[in-house]
Write a structure and sequence with these properties.
Elements lengths: L6 E3 L4 H10 L5 E4 L18 E4 L9 E4 L2 E5 L4 H7 L7 H9 L3 H6 L2 H6 L8 H7 L3 E6 L2 E6 H6 L9 E7 L5 E7 L10 E9 L5 E9 L6 E2 L1 H7 L6 H10 L14 H19 L10
Parallel strand pairs: 1-3, 2-3
Antiparallel strand pairs: 4-5, 5-8, 6-7, 6-8, 9-10, 10-11, 11-12
Helix pairs in contact: 2-3, 9-10
């Protein structure tokens, strides 16, 4: 395809980006963040005859703000920038790990938080389950106004979301409890994981679990909460072995996908071990956690 078939815009405000997206009726228009996924569209056989609206020059989307109501992350913040901002912050240990080990250093310096959420064809993100475990919501701007939805609801609606709507910020409520993130690779760092588990657990003074969120990635076509396992472990003490056994007993609730990197049955087989590792990390200082 000729280079002239591609139209590229670089607006400097959210309003200008929305204007371009809304005005592009004759041909498909999409917002572009870091570009690490869309730049390989041709290799995947996807149509690139589109209008691309880069968000790279919108300064308002690059901020990380802490407030009493939690953490507000701009959609154009990169994995590397977020990992740096959360370094040595035990409240966000799981999210920090997800950002710090995703892909490879070059990708982490380019790939954005918003882009990771919006890439519905990318089935193995580290970041998304970590956000789901934290109860994150996303802000969406459209010409008609703004709305906020949970990450889970956003994922469910990605395929039908209007192209003229932009994900601008991610909001994390004040963290309550401990978080952990575990993943499995087939060979070496830099590859996409074949299974990911992120956990948040908040326990009562007697040690029983009051709040529990367990999120998965790479196992099914999209990240999701493992509700059946959460319900089985809620109200119990944090016990890595018991969590592993419960995960084994609730694998039938999942629909693992086959892929060129791993078969569905293999992805599911890895989950009990990852759950055990994540639950073990919940009670460890960050420096002593499993490096895998």
């Amino acid at each position: 395809m000729a280079q002239t078939d591609v139209v590229f815009h670089q607006p400097e405000t959210i309003e200008a980006a929305l204007s371009v997206l809304s005005a592009s009726a004759a041909r498909p228009a999409i917002a572009v963040a870091g570009g690490t996924w869309v730049m390989r569209a041709g290799l995947r056989g996807e149509d690139t005859d589109k209008t691309f609206v880069s968000l790279a020059k919108i300064a308002a989307l690059r901020s990380i703000e802490r407030a009493d109501d939690g953490l507000r992350i701009g959609a154009m913040v990169t994995h590397a920038d977020l990992a740096s901002a959360l370094d040595d912050d035990p409240a966000y240990a799981g999210l920090h790990r997800a950002c710090a080990i995703s892909a490879n250093p070059a990708i982490r310096r380019r790939a954005t938080i918003g882009g990771n959420l919006c890439s519905d064809a990318f089935m193995a993100p580290d970041l998304v389950p970590a956000l789901m475990a934290l109860g994150a919501t996303v802000n969406l701007h459209a010409p008609t106004g703004e709305r906020r939805v949970s990450v889970a609801d956003f994922l469910d609606g990605r395929a039908t979301r209007p192209a003229s709507e932009i994900l601008t910020h991610i909001h994390l409520p004040p963290p309550r409890g401990a978080t952990a993130h575990a993943r499995a690779l087939l060979r070496q760092a830099g590859e996409y994981p074949v299974a990911v588990v992120s956990v948040l657990a908040h326990c009562r003074t007697d040690g029983t679990c009051q709040t529990l969120r367990i999120a998965l990635s790479a196992v099914e076509p999209a990240p999701r909460r493992w509700d059946a396992l959460e319900n089985a472990l809620l109200g119990r003490r944090l016990d890595p072995v018991a969590a592993r056994d419960a995960a084994q007993a609730h694998l039938k609730a999942l629909h693992p996908r086959d892929g060129v990197d791993a078969a569905g049955w293999y992805r599911a087989r890895l989950l009990p071990q990852l759950v055990e590792r994540a639950f073990a990390d919940l009670t460890r200082p960050t420096a002593q956690r499993d490096p895998q």
